[in-house]
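[agent] plan:
  1. take the single chain provided in the ticket
  2. run structure prediction with default settings
  3. attach structure tokens to the ticket
  4. add a short note for the reviewer (M.T.)
[agent] executing step 1
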Amino acid sequence: MSAGMQMASGKSEIFEAVLKFMPDWVQITVIALVVLAVLVSWGVKLKRRIDYRRAVRSGRPVHAAAQYGQRSGADYLGAYAPQQPTAPPQPAPVQQSGADFLGAYAPQNRQGNGSV
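[agent] step 2 finished; step 3 output follows
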């Protein structure tokens, strides 16, 4: 055994053993599908990288997950995305108590001598 030759990994040996027992047309199809899967994954990765760089250059806000090559479901909503509020939210009252949240169940203010 030569010292310059590397041994094939176990996965590649299994892959070759399985392909050896298949007809030629199946071997070619399987190898073509593997190559196609690798090329598609490279293409998707490249597209995401280009989209990220375009967003950074144009000054658009970049989603935190998109920085690392991940996207969220909201990125695919398009016209179905929820509308952003146009008016700023109203400030909450400074002093609130539990009775403020009771609504119709709040005790009635009675004016009088205190008898029922």
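[agent] step 4 note for reviewer: The longest helix spans residues 24-58.
[agent] ticket updated
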